[in-house]
Amino acid sequence: MKIKPKKAKKVRALVFSGYGLNCEEEAAYGFTLAGAEADIVHINDIIDGKVSVNDYQILCFPGGFAYGDDTGSGKAYANRVKNHLGKDLATFLSEGKLIIGICNGFQILTELGLLPGALTYNDSNRYTDRWVDLEAEGESPWLTGITRLSVPVAHGEGKFVAPPKELAELKKKKMVALRYVKGEMCAYQDLPLNPSGTMEDIAGVLSHEGRVFGLMPHPDRALFSTQLPHWPLLKERARRGESFPEHGPGLAIFENGVNYFPN
Amino acid sequence: MAIRIDVISAIPDARALVKKNEFQGLVGKGKIRAVQIADSYTIDSALTKTGLTEARLALTNPKTERSYRGQWLPKRFTRGIEIGFLPGVTDNAGNTAKEMIEDAARHAFEPGEQVYSSQTFFITGAVSEKDAQKIAASLHNPLIQTARVFGSEIRKERPTPRIPRVVLSGSSKVIHVDLDVHDDELQALSTYGIRDESGVRRGPLGLSLPYLKVIRSHFKRLGRQPTDIELETLAQTWSEHCKHIIFASPIDGAPKGIYKTYIKGATEKIRKAKGRKDFCVSVFKDNSGGIEFDEKYVITHKVETHNTPSALDPFGGAITGIVGVNRDALGFGLGAKPVANVYGFCFAPSRDASRLYRDRAQREEMLSAKRIAEGVIKGINAGGNQSGIPTENGFMLFDASYRGKPLVFAGTVGLIPKKRNARMLYKKKAKNGDYIVMVGGRVGLDGIHGATFSSTELNANSPSTAVQIGDPITQKKFSDALAKEARDLGLYNSITDNGAGGLSSSVGEMAREAGGCRVDLEKVPVKYPGLEPWQIWISESQERMTLAVPPKKWRAFSALMRRRGVEATVIGEFTRSGACVVAYARKTILDIRLDFLHDGAPLYPLRVEKRETRTEAPKVRALRDYSHALAAMLSRENLASNEFLSRQFDHEVQSGSVLKPIQGAGRVSAEAGVFRPVLSSSRAVVLSSGVAPFYSDLDPYGMAAASIDTAIRNAVAAGASMDHLALLDNFCWTESDTPGRLWQLREAARACYDYAVAYGTPYISGKDSMFNDFKGYDEKGNFVQISALPTLLISTIGVMENAENAVSIDAKCPGDFLYLLGETHEELGGSEFFRMIAEHGQKGKIGGRVPKVEAKKNLKLYKTFEKAVREELVASALSVNRGGLALALSKKALAGNLGIEADLSKIPGTAKAPHALLFSESQGRILASVRPDAAHRFEKLFTGQGYRRIGAVTKKPVLSVMLANKKLAFLSLNKALASYRKTFKEW
What we know:
The complex is a heterodimer. Chain A is of the alpha/beta class. Chain A has helices at 24-33, 43-47, 75-94, 104-112, 164-172, 184-189, 231-238, 251-259, and strands spanning 12-17, 37-42, 58-61, 98-102, 118-120, 128-136, 148-155, 159-161, 176-181, 202-207, 212-215. In chain A, strands 2-1-3-4-11-10-9-6-7 form a nine-stranded mixed sheet. In chain A, helix 1 (24-33) links the parallel strand 1 and strand 2. The mean pLDDT of chain A is 95. Chain B is an alpha+beta fold. Helix content of chain B is 33%, strand content 24%. In chain B, the strands form eight sheets. In chain B, strands 16-18-15-19-17-20-21 form a seven-stranded mixed sheet, sandwiched between helices. Classes of the chains: A alpha/beta, B alpha+beta. Chains A and B meet through helix 1, helix 3, strand 6 and helix 7 of A and helix 1, helix 3, helix 14, helix 15 and helix 21 of B.
């Protein structure tokens, strides 16, 4: 199992924190493993001007429960970003840089209007933690070389919705990043492919030529081989001559983000 | 003028659809045609017109929602039900809305101004007023919420917004209490509390007569009467809850008391024997217990119970339980980061439809068994998930005795570096001159006198004090600011949690480190005006820590907290006066010597008397085929899949998950969880537990032994090492003022000593809850007492060097050999099998021999097993627990989605009868599968110990259990899986 980072490149990633976001450490570790220099920064330190987003190539809004999901997931944090950092983000994007929002971060990006559509309550109206299978279909630097991918989801408000017109345009412009499909994990644990009732099985979307990427699934929780639900089975098979993965499938997304920038 | 904003969903609302189904279940399917939900925010502040527009925009997602000013009503509805909070109840959505409005509209709220949230359910259909009342009852808890049911008449009325503002007329005057009175009056003081100026009693002090007399003579010597706040403080500090009097008092057979003799005594002996291999770092003296993780880190653990609050408000009780125990991690040393949660539930069966009342007049009804269970589950869900702490392990048990009070266990594992700069982070000490700083939430009337405050004493504007709702985000903010920033900057010298007893307890405790304290109570930030000084001092308002900050560091500390959105206030300073001194408006109102406060309570010897429970064993009819019995066992509430819990409790956040709570292709509930708390380290932590309350009345010593053995074995089967494994004890007892129950308690504690010492597994932390008894009235108005089974939860925490050595429960490959390690005897007393039989016409007959734990044999077996795991010989392993070998075989097959062929004819041990071979709960057993080419080495390791190769894993999807050439049980995997999953399908 690979758990230590490669030698650091010069790419710098900023991972937002504060107000109940809670996946900042694993998201930052994903970028670190991928070779970037990752900093976890409280949103107020950016607002106060102590840290500038200009010094970074990648911004990450990680998962969590910002403001406890009160008044709707992502809403309150997005408002804080909008009220104080709206211009900074616009400049950041105009420079051809990358943004990723994972789970709560995805909800924040849609509430900010940086990504299309909206996220609402799962059909079950219940928080659900499980593994899913994904198929990449959009055009994005984040998805280079990825066709299929299995990682976990854990959310209560992950159902993507968009009006028919917006949805048609999304598809036309290749802005649907990921869809839930029946794959290895669904087959292994006999699970339905769609964990939330999300529209057309959409798990993630794109904007800004694919540079802004939001997804409900958690690549940051699939960095290591021992996070796979069936790793003990793979390990036992490895003892009988088969191969054992070096790292988790989610790492590829972080590597794509980092490798997008030239050395 | 208050303004109301209503937000409704503009797209199909999953919440409303789920509610529709629930309502249909309550009043009949045909009656409910549609449900709509409106979320309301009543803003009690003078917003400008543009401010209001900004607020409305901020609260509305334009793609999915619409919002309106004033109360929104749908075009058509039959009944509306609006649920809001009672005054003073934590309103998280309201608080967030307030922050959003402050930010979006740049509007400053005046002190006392608030946003109040409420939710309205609009129902269309043939719902009568009575139906609507029934639905309303299911939607709210009258202890914390209000429900308003209305019909279409509301269109004309246009009611003014309801503002649940707290209005108090508390006096800041301090009362001197005359203790020189007759015993009857002293007793009344204890039971009903101090009389305030108007003669009304404030609620129980709970101090016993002898204690009140000790206090009387103490103040006589000082030549003055105690003040109300002094008595309230002593009542808190000397309470069973804070002092653990029963565990500390001399008891027959253990003159130094149960805690010192059996629990601490065991740990001391084990640590000594381990010598240089001792891994304990800080045990029993801090908010959690800490053991070594590696050379850089300490890992901590603490398990708490929150039983009474969960009985009253299951959601609030459970969420404050889990968020509260998170603070025990944060309160360890200078602040450990919470890295894992565990839970344990003991509920009454949900089919138990009995109605119970707290009062004879039947005005205060207890919630139903099902609602308690559902609310508790929701509370653990919200508390753990919102805090971003993975729930790695837990259990759920059912028994009728938990109808009066459920048992809700909540535990938290913390991680803390040993050292930062020159400072040892697991040590702390408040110093003379340090500021006393309160961090986090504000103080209200929450939890004053705990749950004894009767709801009948509540009126329209008096806050609900009996129960509280946790606020995970306020806590998350200071948790991050402290454990991830201020701690490592060295900005404070000591920290502790505000739990039971509030400031009186946290400041009182920390004052011991410095040698004294002086507090100015008027500096404490309050939720609303009008609190009396004594109330501020003992309030149990949640989400607060108390810190000792050196004056030199205050500016940096205070600036950091402000930038993190965390309120921090200096409320006094630590001194070396030897006394705890509290002032209000410059007047000293409390002045107690620390030695009297902490050590002034005398301990009185406790008497025990053997309590024998004569319970017969049921008559067991020999069956030709046990397939049907096995299927029935798989559906038992205490054995069936509780995947629905593991799915909704996030167990993968923080990215360290190794062995998940549900495992294998078949998604089977596991007994142990494994995770990596440090992302750059391959080391892992193993968590598990053992609990065997069904043995308690038959043999309390055997019960405790089985709990310990089970907890340890579960961890070992998952790959833990006996050399790095620690225990935690949680006693939930009943009627602990009776010699019979105290005998049971002592017997259980005696086993705790014997087995911990035998296994070399020290206790690092514990907690007891001594009175899990419900006293109230049934439907007919008869007095009833329901006492929970004496329940001992033993939790284990262990460290393993390499996460990849963790062993999951699922059978891996067809052709693998199956081994049963350990001996099987006819030990079915209190077993799940006997409980099942007894339910069919043999009520209460669950007697018989309780499993006997052979620690010496088991220890050898476990150590050998550990070796086999390290040599990578074990493909899967499952500890044989409740339900016996038949259950273990089923779970292994189901988890692997592979068949099993087993023959039990020559298994080690004395069990002979088929039902005993299948269902006996003998301890010390592990069921393992091994790849054929490793079998020789595996068998060689176990030479001379009780083990048997009982069969093999097969491709054929069938579970087949034979006794030589006789079929004992034969189940297809599909049938077994359906039985295993059906019980909680609708949960």
